[in-house]
Amino acid sequence: xxxxxxxxxxxxxxSGFFLISGTVVATVFLAITSILVARFLGPELYxxxxxxxxxxxxxxxxxxxxxxxxxxxxxxxxRAKGETNHLTNIIKYGLLLRTCTGIVIFLVSYAFADxxxxxxxxxxxxxxxxxIASTSILFQVIFSxxxxxxxxxxxxxxxxxxxxILAVAKTIISIVLVLLGFSVAGAIIGYVASYIxxxxxxxxxxxxxxxxxxxxxxGHSFTGDLKTLMxxxxxxxxxxxxxxxxxxxQNIVLALFTTDADVGNYKAATNFTTLxxxxxxxxxxxxxxxxxxxxxxxxxxxxxxxxHANKYTAMLIIPTTVLIIIFxxxxxxxxxxxxxxxxxxxxxxxxxxxFLVGIGFLTLTSFYNGLGETKTTLKINLIAFLTxxxxxxxxxxxxxxxxxxxxxxxxxxxxxxxxxxxxxKNFKIEFGAxxxxxxxxxxxxxxxxxxxxxxxxxxxxxxxxxxxxFLYLFTYITLIPITRIVNNTELKTxxxxxxxxxxxxxxxxxxxxxxxxxxxxxxxxxxxx
Length: 529
Hints:
It is built from 20 helices and no strands. It has helices spanning 3-52, 54-60, 67-81, 84-111, 113-119, 127-152, 156-209, 222-257, 260-271, 274-293, 299-326, 328-336, 343-351, 364-370, 374-427, 433-445, 448-456, 461-482, 488-498, 505-520.
């Protein structure tokens, strides 16, 4: 790899570490908050709390305008070019535009809260709670735009910081207010207050680290920059609306064609995909600025970076997916008990979607958005949406929840196949089929020992999961160098990149040395990239 690609890889690895670690910590705090608030309020009041945010969260989708992705893309590319004045303006204009949009949507939600509560929620008595919840829209907008700016500036440690500020603030304020007797209103106020605290902290930190303008003129106007952001973001905005409509449509289909028990099992199953989400969203996020920096580079450099990014994403996501499938029954029973009998099958089937990572499931969107090809992203999402819209009711009516999941899988295959075909045709992108086949093969092969353990061990399920996961990962890490999925050059590059992520060094460095020893014992072969 060239120095430019290695530098981009270093920045991406560092950014990914902070995003993943920040997301994990925040997820733990938010999970604790959710559990405690639910226990303190009880089922009925907790249901009112959840319903109060249905309309505000739906309206929040209309505030995006594709600006968040635009901020990440243009901030990263302009920073790579050294255009700091223009970079600062893009962030400020994006923040201003989205804030104005947030104010308008907030006013709509607040003014029509009584109507929304009566018509959409069928609960007019929740209008007051909807009004309080509507306040969160504006501060969510500000929080999200500052978080995106930190990603584009390669300051993801600040992104992780404000994400954790949000989680901690929500935990403390919500629980304290509920315990003080403010009930549902207290929980909602805690939610809103956490976004206020995090948004204020985000804006303060953002303006502290923004590059200072060096001159009054930069050759770019306010109107011109807004047009640039809107032109880039419009296809992404439509994509977001389509994607945001899917959960609502999915719930309608489930309500029509399945039982309450089936829905409960499905929801329980999808809750366990959080681990994959915690890994996949940061990966997609850091790859957007990475490809944006390479936008003006040669096509060969872009091809090389994509091939490596897709390969290492597959090396991380595929074994994680296999592990969840292997232990699906044990995980569900430990957390939810034996009454959720269908959930393990639903979970295992749903996880198959992440096997598409090899053909660009988590990399193609960032690739196209980073290069400014947002219309292609829209086409990918439109194919997925239309496929789901047509197949979901048909397959769900015939095969219940499994039919809905199959519809998701077919939609994923159709949309990603189009995306990968376009990447190969228009950008001559290569996925490295031979290497990817090896990754799939060793990911499946590594499951042999854990499966034998599950069949023969009389030990408690938690022990079997822990031991089985260790056996799986040890086998997988050993097979990677044996099958030459990685070579010494790549391991040396990984060691170099790790120097930028000191917290990870003690954990990863021994694994790299272990793989290097295995490679050194083998006869030299052709390098596989």
